[in-house]
Amino acid sequence: MDYSKITHFSDVELERFQDIYMRYKKMYLEPDESMPMFVINTPVESHVWEEKLADPEVMFTDDLKVIRAHADVGDDRVPTTRVSFGTAQIAAAFGCEMFIPPNNLPCAKTHVLHDIHDAKKLQFPHKDAGWFKKLYDFSDFFMENLPEGVELQLPDIQGPFNNAHLIRGNDILFDFYDYPNELEGFLDFITDYLIDLVKRLSPYNTNRDGWFFEWGSLWKGNGRISNWTVHLISPDMYRDFILKRDIRFLEGIGGGRIHYCGSYPEVIESFINLPPVTGFDYDDSLHSLDTVCDLCPDNIPIYCWTHSGSETMHNLLRGLWPQKKNIIIGVDAPSVEEGRALLQQLRETSERFHSGLR
Asked: What does the alpha-carbon distance between residue 209 and residue 130 come to, in Å, rounded to a whole number?
């Protein structure tokens, strides 16, 4: 099948994507010369997850339809696809049983490390363990069939603490108090594994020249840490136990960004000031855009995922923008037509603000 019949990008659209890449790079390299960028999600008819997980063609074509919808809106989403097997692929490789909720992504059902003292017995799993053989098979299908202009991003590998939590379970929270030395050894082991894994996954994505595709955007570096589990521990615990592993992981892969959907604002400053961090995304319902912008170094792009009825969107559409220019706004719209109108409003108000015509 010719999958370009789904995306059917024109030469003008392909040139526009190259311009989008340059603008994303400018967000990190020349933040003062950049401008806000926008990802407008609109409804696309798709299959249930049970069908996607069973057939690479179904997952692939559904992603291509989403890419085409963004191109129709004309927003700044990079045309990327991903093999999506949920958050527990690493846990499954270590032997955790997977559970697939109805019409949803797989997650970890069981935890295999019942005693933290047994962590020292762990070895890196076989490259095909768990869902990885299936991941490679799906990735091969995606790579072989990418239409012109479409990129393939890394699968979701989470991060050191998220994976340690999935493998150990909630008992890991007691380990901080009862067996801190053993916990640190376990975290080091998981960090080493993830660094090795990113290198092994390099043939299964189209990242290039120290820039990687993630969440429909382009970022400096080679991968992402997902740190949602951090909201289960105190900010001091993050700084004492997790931070050094996050730094080592990101340094080991050549830099990358951090995703955080937790509620502690106190850890955000720690995240975004790590030397190898090149970007940050967060849930707008939990943190203020202005606050995050104030905490963030000038050259670190921010991805704010919000919704149309949020206070943040209300302010932006009124022209109340942060001074920081290198921000990405992700928001939903009910249709392609309404997405275009919303995109135009956001572009107009941001350009007016940053040109001084408030």
From this structure: 30
